[in-house]
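haha ok so turns out i had the wrong file open the whole time. this is the CORRECT one, sorry everyone. sequence first:
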Amino acid sequence: MSSTTNERRPAGNGTAIQNAGERSTGNATDLRARARRHEYAILVLAERVDGTVVSSFYTNLPAAERKVTRTRERGLDATLTLVRVTPVRGDLAALLALPEAVAE
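then structure:
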């Protein structure tokens, strides 16, 4: 793996893409280690004009702060909370108790 790491941010969605310069062999542990900065996120709960509360997750603190500031400037409520992102192992359908998983 190269010692230089490039990072790109696609327009609009705020998701960071890390490029290590060389193609990995596909080791899941290595992939998690390279993405270590994504173990935490900022949860923003923001009220909309219609009263609906929307939750958004950010990996960029300045972007999360801008969302809270813009929401509060409109006279609406918003909060910012640091959260830990933890992978859940198992079958997604079973975890969500979807009907097709229960029927099996």
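The chain has a mean pLDDT of 76.
again sry for the mixup
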